[in-house]
Amino acid sequence: MYLCDYTKTLLLVEDDDALRSRLGTAMQKRGFNITSASSVAEGLRAVRANAPDYAVIDLRLQDGSGLDVVEALEQQRPDARAIILTGYGNIPTAVAATRLGAIDYITKPATADEIVDTLMAPKGTRPPAPDAPISPDDARFEHIEQVFHETGKNVSETARLLQMHRRTLQRILRRHQVVKDAA
């Protein structure tokens, strides 16, 4: 784990209030001076006002794409180190993020230590291969669980968004003990 001092500024752009608050507190404890934003518009204003040393930016925000904030930060301060943090990881957006200036693309859930390690890693270093890569079934379930929580644990809405039958979703959630009674 890398530690830094309060001269290191970090822009945190995340539209989930609870996650933004928890991650902001965790990053502050790790020595960052935090500026928080809950939208692309707020993130762009923060970059224009005082471009930070580091940024952790959600990909999908209520008012657009976090890639717009990455691009603005790259133009304003090319030496800044930004990462995209998302629950909707895919290869095309990862490639776009790095082309626009992000140093990495991390899928949720990620720990504050993983984020700090990524931000503070020396330029040009490559992350080690995972000790225990996630299985496709586990990755699928993590995605299902993410969508389930984003819908306020609404089974019908989650099933619609995932384009699956409601009863199939209920069985998956019960199997993983996410819901006690999803009937």
From TrEMBL:
- What's one GO-annotated cellular component? protein-DNA complex
Q: Which residues form the Response regulatory domain?
A: 9-123
Alphabetically sorted, this entry's keywords are: DNA-binding, Phosphoprotein, Transcription, Transcription regulation, Two-component regulatory system
Asked if the keyword Cell membrane belongs to this entry, the reply reads: no
Tell me the GO BP annotations in alphabetical order.
Answer: regulation of DNA-templated transcription
User: Which of the residues bear the PTM 4-aspartylphosphate?
Assistant: 58
Sample GO molecular function, one term: phosphorelay response regulator activity
Which Pfam families does the record cross-reference, listed alphabetically? HTH_8, Response_reg
**SUPFAM superfamilies according to UniProt:** CheY-like
What name does the UniProt record give this protein? Answer: Response regulator
Organism of origin: Octadecabacter arcticus 238
